[in-house]
Amino acid sequence: MPRNILPVKLNEIKEGVVTDILHNGMGVIMVDQHYPVKLVDAFLGEKIRCRLTQVDRLSAYGEVLTVVKPSADRQNQNKAYLLEAGVAPYVNLSYSGQLKLKRRQVEQAFAAVDLKLPVAATIGADQPTHYRNKTVVPLKNQNGHLTTGFFDRKNKDTIVPMDDYYLNDPIIDQTIGIVRDILDQFKTPIYNDVTKQGAMRYIMVRRGYYSQQVMVVLVSHLAQIPDEAAIAQAIVEQVPALKSLILNHNPRQTSQQLTGDNRVLWGDAAIHDQLLGHDFVIGPNSFYQVNPKTTEVLYQLAAQMGELKASDHAIDAYSGIGTIGLSIADQVQQVYGVEVVERAVEDAKINIAQNQIKNAQYIAADAPVQMEKWRDENLPADIIFVDPPRRGLTETLMDAMVYLNPDRVVYVSCNPVTMARDIKYMTEHGYQVQGPIQPLDQFPQTAHVECVALLVNKH
């Protein structure tokens, strides 16, 4: 068939068997063996009847009409709104099915870069729902009242209303509802992306898992919102365990949710929580893992895989507020942290003092530059921990690690695709993977998976 003649038409009804799951959680059925149709809420082996909603030259998107033959792992939860917003693509997949699928995703990522490495069974979460300790939700005047939820994946002008977000700590959901209703009561102007007018853009809520302290951040286009003092007083009176109420001024015309411009309206500038016995100060902009219980498992696993010794000098790259480095400080001789975000390094130094840790120092610098400097200073680097954002490591950083020449590198990743790419690069530059890649489910009900791997110096 000529390439410019498509095998499908818009709104056509098709039926097929799901043969693959993409890394965004969408199932795939094939038309004419080479044309993929991507579907939400469609799992491996299922026979699906669907209507095509978007068609282009290379692929199509469809809407599931009927699951003709369901997977044995399908468990419908009757929460279609989560699929509409795209926040929990695996909500109708049993938890054991989710763990098997995530292992398969990791295996596919490494196979795609021609790395034949063993992948261990995915470590599951003890609590696969209502686990998140932080959320940021948009606001919109919709159907005559103020609405919170997440934007419809098909219509970005509409918010899917939510009271039970399914992934959040229930106290966070309760707090969102309270703050939304207070803003609605005061008729607070909501920012409009089209007119560029209004004030409120988002509500952010954080809650400490162990401390149970609550932070509310009002993200506003304006530096001050109307009735600010009265709104603040109402929030203080109605939100249980509130420790910190902050206004974040975000006038930017971007998708960035928060800026660094914070003003305390009531209480403290940060909350506290504990991780593996250490106390951490968490501000509005702090990167702190969203699933606290599995984070403890993750960091213990990373330390175990790193085979730490009391004589080790450890480097914590992408160190953030110091969570990984400080959690292993009592197992090594010295920890060096490097992070390009100065505010995060300031938080790390506060956490060092807070926990009376004497063998850790954190530096605000570009990691590759700092690593080359450490090598030139003959700093003994026995092990490096890297926990990069989803885009993974840069070749510049990996070259700097190779130059620093540590015995071991522990790679913690939230994206197996970029992790596989980076590990492929490291194996071509003097390192080899020891033991299996270990997936861990930090994000149940979603298509995301955390992984840990150990690389050792071949020389």
UniProtKB/TrEMBL annotation:
One of the GO BP terms on file: rRNA base methylation
PROSITE patterns: SAM_MT_RNA_M5U (PS51687), TRMA_1 (PS01230), TRMA_2 (PS01231)
Active site location: C414, C414 (nucleophile)
Assigned EC number: 2.1.1.190
InterPro entries listed in its UniProt record: MeTrfase_TrmA_AS, MeTrfase_TrmA_CS, NA-bd_OB-fold, SAM-dependent_MTases_sf, U5_MeTrfase_fam
Pfam families per the UniProt record, alphabetical: tRNA_U5-meth_tr
GO molecular function, one term: rRNA (uridine-C5-)-methyltransferase activity
Cleavable signal peptide: none
Enzyme class: transferase
Binding positions for S-adenosyl-L-methionine per the UniProt entry: Q289, Y318, E339, D387
This protein's UniProt keywords: Methyltransferase, S-adenosyl-L-methionine, Transferase
NCBIfam families: rumA
Alphabetical list of PANTHER family matching this protein: RNA M5U METHYLTRANSFERASE, TRNA (URACIL(54)-C(5))-METHYLTRANSFERASE
Family membership: Belongs to the class I-like SAM-binding methyltransferase superfamily. RNA M5U methyltransferase family.
Protein name according to UniProt: 23S rRNA (Uracil(1939)-C(5))-methyltransferase RlmD
Organism: Weissella coleopterorum
